[in-house]
Amino acid sequence: MRSVIYSLLLAAVSASPVPDIGDEVHLLQERQDNSSSSSLLPYSLPPNGPDVLRAADITTKQLTFTYGPPVGVGPYYPAGVLGTTYATMDGAIDDAELAAQVTIMRTDDAKARLDNAKYNGLKTLDDYTKLYDGEWQPSSQPTGQYDGILTNYTQDLLFSMERLSFNPYAVRRLNPPSDSIPFEVDNAIVAKVTGQTLESLFTSGRLFYVDHTVQGRLQKAQPPQYAPACDALFYICPSSGDLLPLAIRTGVSNNLVYTPEDTADDWLLAKIMFNVNDFFMAQFDHFSRNHFVAEIVHEAAVRTLSDSHPVLAILKRLLYGAFGIRPLALVILIRPGGDIDQYFGNSGAAAAQFANETYFNGSAGALRSNYFLTNLEKRGLINSPVGPALKSFPFYEDATPIYNAIRDFTGTFISSYYSSDAAISSDKELQAWIKEANGPAGVIDFPTIKTRSNLATLLAEIGRLVSFSHHAINLNQLITVASTLPFHPTALYKPIPTAKNVTDVASYLPPLDKALGFIGVAANFARPLLANTNRSLINMFDDPIMLHRMNSATRAANEKFKSAMSARSEVVRNRGFDANGLSQGMPFVWQALDPGVAAWSLTI
Ligand SMILES: *[C@@H]1O[C@H](CO)[C@@H](O)[C@H](O)[C@H]1NC(C)=O
Ligand SMILES: *[C@@H]1O[C@H](CO)[C@@H](O)[C@H](O)[C@H]1NC(C)=O
Ligand SMILES: *[C@@H]1O[C@H](CO)[C@@H](O)[C@H](O)[C@H]1NC(C)=O
Ligand SMILES: *[C@@H]1O[C@H](CO)[C@@H](O)[C@H](O)[C@H]1NC(C)=O
Ligand SMILES: *[C@@H]1O[C@H](CO)[C@@H](O)[C@H](O)[C@H]1NC(C)=O
Ligand SMILES: *[C@@H]1O[C@H](CO)[C@@H](O)[C@H](O)[C@H]1NC(C)=O
Ligand SMILES: [Fe+2]
């Protein structure tokens, strides 16, 4: 494993366009070449009677693809000869994609450093926006920084709508019967800001909450980096219907409570402090929410489904490159002295611990209760029994057409192989997978699979985990929006204030070397090279060899998926501001979920 990790790291660091693939990869490729005649046979469900060859193949896989210790944290990681081969091959895929991006990033980084005169020593907030002025192109292409994010960041509506777009997993509506008001805010201020009392906002289902206070007990990075542990209240405005921020509490030292009634500088700093915690949560929760959950479901499937099984073929497609990511994250981000220690307010060890906790306590690691709509419903963001509906919910708006198209595809696919629900229970490999997932694999909250619909939904949810659920948070989002300065630093560079009346917000922001350093990290996560290629979401199922082995109904479903996603790409790509300077009700133009740009799988 070490050699795998180091070859990945070295290739990334040396930006080698040709990945150093290990012997295991050559072996697997040879195995595949040798069996290429059988690997072109159609996929099929297991026969009702015995199939000795098929059973022997599965037995071999169980002996050679085993559950090893997690790499870093999370669920088991593939081990054994075959498990290691999978991991190595995936590593080579991720390594090649990362190396190609590192090459671009280096060119941009060199230019950005040469141009340092124009940043004016980063003395003012406006100076920070110059970091992107004609810089970091084409790293952040094809979109660049989203329109409005560098100009409208002081607006409260921008801050609140970020909770409903590029980190949609933190916010929840407070539910009057089961929740209580998390912290008090001066009544006179609440009345002035909202026209109501906190109590009436709460009881009418208009109060929302984001809780990052758990970060207070995590290990900190070294000074000069600092992190607060904020929580915040938001409300649906009785007059405008907008979701807006009401109060932010720092969670450390004097635990100050800030509101829009504070000075402009204090309130802006409060929102920036919140963003430090929110970015940390979004990124390290996504390890478990997306990667860990999808990986372990796939591991259980490899060990129980024959390579001739159509369901395994879809899972393999969706999990393209996925096992390569945990080793990379460990080496690049989490290791002592890695990117997190260098640029975040909490340490790399804290990030690992946080991801591990969100996985094992189920908040992100549970599969079924985090299904697309279930997750949004349980947080009161859609179909809420209390309070008004959200006026605009960009993540939901953009994710729904993608989810529906994936579910259409998996629905047709499953129905084309299983003629009835009874066929689900008579598929012994599928039943073995379910048992494995609930048993040795330890998948958390694996769904009940009794009907074709259950299975089609499970596959659609795996499709969600590896695509839009992930890309709303990660990859292109880092440089285009989620870590853009001055509003979204990954750490503060002065201790959290113990009193209000701050006048120099810029002095809390990263100095030039840290700012450029982290933009470079963010650029490495961008994947402009995948846009408009066979790696973009439009092509999620468009694997010619796989489709050749599928049936005609599945091939037709792929064509339908592609045209639905191409049409959706047009919509997102051509998005702009309306007459009020808003897009999807936000003062910035969010284009993360363009299926022509976002990838169809997890990548680094
Ligand atoms: C592939 O076939 C060649 C020639 O038949 C053989 O030498 C080699 O050992 C085979 N490789 C594997 C991995 O089975
Ligand atoms: C991750 O959490 C699990 C379950 O609580 C625990 O057993 C394991 O030791 C944790 N791993 C690390 C590296 O902390
Ligand atoms: C799970 O762990 C995360 C990280 O510590 C924490 O934020 C979250 O509140 C926990 N959730 C539950 C249900 O315990
Ligand atoms: C805030 O600063 C201003 C001038 O910078 C000063 O007049 C005022 O008294 C200060 N307020 C507090 C609460 O310290
Ligand atoms: C994408 O297309 C290229 C050729 O243009 C091909 O080499 C590559 O294997 C394809 N990638 C995938 C994942 O299908
Ligand atoms: C947001 O910024 C853009 C320019 O980047 C501007 O056209 C638009 O009007 C702004 N929206 C609001 C609500 O201020
Ligand atoms: Fe990721």
From TrEMBL:
<keyword id="KW-0479">Metal-binding</keyword>
<keyword id="KW-0223">Dioxygenase</keyword>
<dbReference type="Pfam" id="PF00305">
    <property type="entry name" value="Lipoxygenase"/>
</dbReference>
<feature type="domain" description="Lipoxygenase">
    <location>
        <begin position="39"/>
        <end position="604"/>
    </location>
</feature>
<dbReference type="GO" id="GO:0043651">
    <property type="term" value="P:linoleic acid metabolic process"/>
</dbReference>
<dbReference type="InterPro" id="IPR000907">
    <property type="entry name" value="LipOase"/>
</dbReference>
<keyword id="KW-0560">Oxidoreductase</keyword>
<dbReference type="GO" id="GO:0046872">
    <property type="term" value="F:metal ion binding"/>
</dbReference>
<dbReference type="InterPro" id="IPR036226">
    <property type="entry name" value="LipOase_C_sf"/>
</dbReference>
<keyword id="KW-0732">Signal</keyword>
<dbReference type="GO" id="GO:0050584">
    <property type="term" value="F:linoleate 11-lipoxygenase activity"/>
</dbReference>
<feature type="signal peptide">
    <location>
        <begin position="1"/>
        <end position="15"/>
    </location>
</feature>
<dbReference type="GO" id="GO:0034440">
    <property type="term" value="P:lipid oxidation"/>
</dbReference>
<dbReference type="InterPro" id="IPR013819">
    <property type="entry name" value="LipOase_C"/>
</dbReference>
<protein>
    <recommendedName>
        <fullName>Manganese lipoxygenase</fullName>
    </recommendedName>
</protein>
